[in-house]
Amino acid sequence: MTTAERAGAVAAVATPVLAVRDLSVSFPTETGTVSAVDGVSLDLASGEIVGMVGESGCGKSVTAMSIAGLLPGSARISGSVRLDGTELVGTRESALRRVRGKEIAYIFQEPMTSLNPVLTVGRQIGEVLQIHERMSRRAARARAVELLTLVGIPSAAKRVDNYPHQLSGGMRQRVMIAMAVACGPKVLVADEPTTALDVTVQAGILQVLRDLRDRLGTSILIITHDLGVIADIADRVVVMYAGRVVERAPVTDLFAHPYHRYTAGLLSASPTPGRHAGTERLQEIPGLVPVLSVQPDACTFADRCPAADARCRESAPPLEVARTGGTLAATGHLAACWHPCPQPRTQPEEANR
Amino acid sequence: MARYLLTRAWQSALTLLLSTIVVFFGVRALPGDPALALAGEDRSPEALEAIRRHYGLDQPLPLQFAQYVERMAQGDFGVSIRTGTPVSSMLTTALPVTVELSVLAILLATALGVGAGVLAAVRRGRPAEWVANGMALIGLSVPHFWLGLLAILYLSVATGLFPASGFVPILEDPVDNLHHIVLPAVILGTGLAAIIMRQTRSAMLDSLSSDYVRTAKAKGLRPRAVITRHALRNSLIVVVTVVGLQLGGLISGAVVTEQIFGLPGFGKMTIDAVFQRDYPVIQAVVLLTATAYIVINFFVDLLYSVIDPRIRVTGDPA
Amino acid sequence: MTVLTVPMAETGSASITRRTRVLRRLRRNPLAVVSFVVLALAAVIALLSPWIAPYSVDQTDFARTFAPPGSPGHVLGTDDLGRDVLSRIMLGARASLQVGLLAVATSLVIGVPLGLAAGYFRAWDAVISRFTDLLLAFPFLIMAVGLAAIRGASLGNAAVAIGIAQIPGVIRVVRSDTLRLKSLDFVAAAVVDGASDLWVLARHILPNATSVILVQATVAIPAAILGEAVLSFLGLGIQPPAPSLGTMLATAQQFAARAPWAAVLPGVVIMGLALAFNVFGDALRDALDPKGDRG
Fold first, then answer.
1. Same domain, yes or no, for B118 and B38?
2. Is B307–A70 a contact, with Cβ atoms under 8 angstroms apart?
3. Residue B37 sits in which domain range?
4. Residue B69 and residue B162 share a domain
5. What is the pLDDT of residue C9?
6. What's the ipTM?
7. Which residues does chain C have within 8 Å of residue B291's beta carbon, measured at their own beta carbons?
8. Residue A79 has pLDDT above 50, yes or no
9. How near does any CA of chain A get to the CA of B210, in Å?
10. C12 in any annotated domain
11. What is the reported pTM?
12. How many distinct helices (H) and strands (E) make up chain A?
């Protein structure tokens, strides 16, 4: 473990900006209750970038939306979300509104539809400043130009009066980012921020996010199904499956040796840099993410898992430091699996410890 | 923007030309000799010959059409068979009544329809939505001339709150004018209000579940700001379109409303003309309605581009 | 890992399950059931009215004019000529439905092919749009005025005027549904397979556009019924002594001081018919909506 990673891990324990504990979300539907998130816990340290990864329908976005209370009123939420020690779950709407956009800001997947088509981008960025910083419209517009420059939009003074449809997809996402960081939020939640974009544009957007973290110290929770994005930007990774966190690890650890069978499946299903793309065939995980009405006391991945046995179907594995063949995994690497993947080979770095 | 304007202007001009042709041939499809129809009382051969010469009925058709357009453009719609007054002067007294009635009806209907539509969308699944939806369905289904009849019978005659009929020009006495016209305007606006309400509700439901409204909420905006600045602003595009499209229905409605409330407008003039076979008047009415519809919708399209910036650049409604 | 959702080709067995699903949704909606029952009842009464009406519609009784509702022998009273109001309302409703169906049939016969052509052939689109603009420039009442001036006022001419005025609406919905269907895979596949345009339109697009046409018809019929009432009220529609709800209201207006109740019933019947169609149309649209949650 490098010094930086160690420091990150320690910071995560000491002062998490955002602490999510045992968060569960379910929705009542016509056919019964659907459990979307089940007992998710995660920490986000100051200046840290945490990636949350999983297939669609695994509860990533619901977790993200519930952080600032953005789920529809019908959602039933339990657990705790603390921002700098202040509880957000169950807080009044008016108090949450002061948090949204100011302390916790969001970036969404579709920059085309997530921006209002009939307002200029300057207006949409300025709006945040007007409500949270009580800026005048003129001052907010001037600040919007600065923010657009900050996120790397050329000739920002002109672009500020453009409408979203006049910008390219990448520029629109930069506008979304400018809007999100306008009030210098402590936490930035980026829900699939690059999914709708070209690969080249994607790299630019990730660079902007990294810069913001370095310059403003913003903590970023980035949600994606793209492991390439995670490898590129995240410090730590949280892997979700069917509403639960199944594995949590520093990014290098996770890519080097995944413990959970699902994570291993994800890695072999995507052409991740450093995993000898081309030499082995991409594997797909058979089956679909189940839609659950009640979270069972079992491993939800059991039906798709090659290593599942009776135990997996009888009790849910806890998220803990994984043991494989008597070897204890590195600190901070947790997995919820009864039969974690055996280590391909002992890393020299680990052998030294 | 310029291209959009030009396209719309060209299309409007074309439609105007086509509708003029339709009316021109429509007049020729009238039973009997057009000269006979135009002559009115005096049907002596000399008079008919004079009319044929005056209106160029002895000329080839394309030339006749050209002269026809020229006359219409100059406001020469001929002379009423019944009253002997020029149709143009009849129009100048009748039109202001109809315009006032229609504008007031549109304003009332828009205010009511947009308000109820927003309410129904925001209060989705609550009693307020049910009430608004029910009112809209009734507003859509009620024959508004019947509503007018009932209003006169049970409101004007019984209580004397509103005059049952008649009209006072706005310049003469603005208060009395409003007193006479407000009830007809409400009656005329009911159907339009119902249509606007339903369209607003459905557009608001769409925009309230849109990504940009989610963004607005994530910014920490108050619900009021989310609804008015973000959701409603986008829904208005639909409302403007609806008002434009319903203009024809409104003109039809105005005719009946005027008839019921005895307002001396364009509608009453039209109905009287039909029963008296006053062809010059009918022709003027038909042509004028078509022209008004086309011109007003051209301006509606312009308004469109003011509300929706996407049109200004691409020239295509989203 | 990628899961493709294949858009269901709306043909064959798929369309049968779709139909049962729509019917099931309709049955579960109390408003749909009530409005359907009202319409069915109205249709039966209208069909049988010449035989089941208690009196002949033009049987006058000058000894008993303006009998109020509830009078012996005349449940709903009599009119200015002593004719039975119930009988006239039954036959008037029959005429209303006739005009409604006739008008909508007119608009569909002309509008559906034009809508299909406008949506399917790019070249036709502009021409048909101008035609639509032209029609829109003549509101239905003006159309009726013109038609009455040329051909005289009658039930048929009223229905034609209303029907022509409804063509643009039909063209609009059919055109947009054609555009949607044209882009679907099964239509593209048929085109690639070398099917002729007419075949594609008739076999693939029209059957799948039926639902929007049906919804359009259910909203057009009440509009036509209201239109007939307006025209007859003004004297541009059904001509007396033939019974029509609109002319009954016109008469009632003349004698409002003597018999104010006469103005109520025909209006209620017109509104009831229109309301039933509108409510049913809404329910049908909701039932056909694949999202199925828009109340």
1. no
2. no
3. 19-73
4. no
5. 40
6. 0.83
7. 137
8. yes
9. 7
10. no
11. 0.83
12. 14, 14
